TrEMBL record:
Annotated TM spans: 29-48
InterPro entries, alphabetized: ClpP/crotonase-like_dom_sf (IPR029045), Tail-specific_protease (IPR005151)
Location of the Tail specific protease domain: 190-377
Record-level Gene Ontology MF annotations: serine-type peptidase activity
An example Gene Ontology biological process: proteolysis
Keywords (A to Z) from UniProt: Membrane, Transmembrane, Transmembrane helix
Organism: Urinicoccus massiliensis
Name of the protein this chain belongs to: Peptidase family S41
Any single Pfam family the record assigns to this protein: Peptidase_S41
Amino acid sequence: MGTVGSRDFCLRLDVEVDFMFKSKNKNKVKIFILFLFILLSIIIFNNLSTHKYLKEFEYTYGFIRDAYSGFYILGNENWLRNKNRYKKMIKSCRNDTDYMNEMNLILKEIGDGHVNVVNRDSIINRILGILPHGFKKADWDEWIKEDPFSEKVLKDYHISYTDVREASLDSPLKYQDVHNLEARKIIDGKVGYIKINSMLEPNSSDINFRNDELRMKNFLDDGYETIIIDLRSNAGGNAFYWLDFLLPYLGIREGTSLNWISFWTDRASKVPSSYPLYDDSVKIHKLDQSKKEMIYKEFPDLRASTLDKTIFDHFNYYSRHSFTITHRENVSFSQRPYNLYFLTGPKTGSASDALIKFVKVNQLGKIVGERTKGDPVPYNPTVQMPYTGMQVSVPLTLSLPIGMPIEEFYYTNPDIFASDDIKAIKRLSDGTLFQFDEALIKVLENEGYWDH
């Protein structure tokens, strides 16, 4: 893909040009700059032919048409009718950067945030989530040895040990001024409030995630009985944030799980997980008539649903998946039981919606608010494109959570409906004013704390 080394090269370019402008020979300067820009285009861009870009687009289009599960869930098949317009966009590409930008625009029109071109920074962040904090070259070599395909991805994205090592170092540029996890004391020793803006990569090398851990520990030290977790502005992220961090800290026991059955088209079932950070041990089985009764037993209300025909007409294979809380090194399990409330709204989606389904099936707390945005994706691998080597993220399965009503396989309804309309402003014990919306008031009323 052609982006590696561009930062160092550009820094060198600035130094060289600055030095040469001090010389008297302006023509040499112009020639040198022209030479550098030509060299820069060769180093940074692969400059594939238009024919190759079009062939790769055809491959991507065909794969999404035959394997992407969203067409049967979101009803966004209109994207398929725009192929000729997309080909015109691809014909204008001069290099990999143009091509990636155009492909992202094209994929964005599908209307599913899970379908996108995976950029280099995302892959580096995922790698940091695998390697131990403060990893050394030996850890790097061992990881590549255990996962041979990772070496190909690293090569295609021009990612080296040094690149990942540098990214692991704390930098003021990476620090978010707005706290991802915001904690407030609503009632001393009784009710605490946590707002989580995004499900971060649970990466000990990330200063923002470490700050979330620190705030959570300090927050729980105050000894609350009831904790409100506000996910109304949380559009998702990484499910391991709540599996490995949030729920264990809130006292949810090891072994608690949410099981899924996922359905695959014929094309999707043939795709290995080319992204080295996904589990490639998933067992895919043929979905034939003999399996129907097993499926109906797991989902008693499926027969009466429109999904029944969709699944058995368009999907040829199935697999089982599980979100399970397991013991992991450096994970703290709270021994204290809490009364938990989870606030949801129309922005609560993806990994956040998966958390809400996990809570609902296991009856871990009350869900208060509005219906979620939905879009839980328990298995979302990436597929490598043949010429540029770029990775495209594509949800491949229609997945049903076992224990949930069929009507909530995508969205999730709250236990207590409430809006986020502000109803009152009160002063907390620390002297600050706090806005109480309808959902918060419903929680406090349910616990017997709201004073009208």
